[in-house]
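Changelog note: in this version the structure field was regenerated for every chain. One regenerated record is shown below for reference.
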Amino acid sequence: MLLPALARAKEQGLKASCLGNTRQISIGMILYADDNRQIFPDPGNPASPTWWNPGPFHNSLGLLCGGEWMCTIDGKSYPNTPAPMIEPYLRNPLVWVCAKRKRGLTYTTAPGIFDPTITGFLSYGFNEIGCFCLCNPAGGGLSEGMYVPTPPFKYTAVKRPAQLIAVTEVSGLNNPLDCDGNGGGNVDADAAWLDGVWDASSGPGSQPNNNFNGRLQTAYGRHDNQVDIIYVDGHSESSLPSKLTWGLFWGYYDSSAPSLIAAHQWNQSISTTAYDSKVWTNTPE
């Protein structure tokens, strides 16, 4: 009787720790915006921001790493996600590591425990379709409608900031060779981008339980099958993936919303209840 109680208490502690991380990230996100005309961080070259850049990715040790921290464009280093842009307000890169998932502490390039500034991996990812980098709901353009350069996202212009998702927990491998541009054969280590590609390649129905659904819908290391989420207004809460709709990512909340990429509707779940208890991989991250 004691062992199940201890396991339950440990799980609740890990969940509380992760929720604490999201609350700190949300504060950093809002502070960044307050210092930048209410505009959320937009990665890439400030002269022409982009939602993502391929590798190869190398860290400050000169080793191959993940692409969720920094990237190289024309020989110069730039943030590849909003995380390093928010980091100065947090001053602790371990905030980007979920205590249960632990993604960001290790990478296969070298043995030991590090942090996301070295490994290039995160336990949390960014809504880039209706927040941060933005996406065209009709598709078209580069990579499932992602704009290049990306338009600015001003959080004070959002009509329902308490209902628009900004950041969620994500799951992916920790092998840099599985990052696009690092020489491997897949993108199973690219997890921090909840973008138009993720939208078109994941969700309920015939979509498989693979890397794209695995980023969020069947993420490894969830808490009682739930993921912790940050909304644009800064509040955090936990939810089953099947309780989330595409409208919460796009910012559409009624029947006047357009049909989205992959024919998703605003009130359609991003997942299924059957996926709530599944994980795309049991490999520790």
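Spot check on this record: The mean pLDDT is 92. Helices lie at 2-34, 83-90, 116-119, 196-201, 211-215, 246-250.
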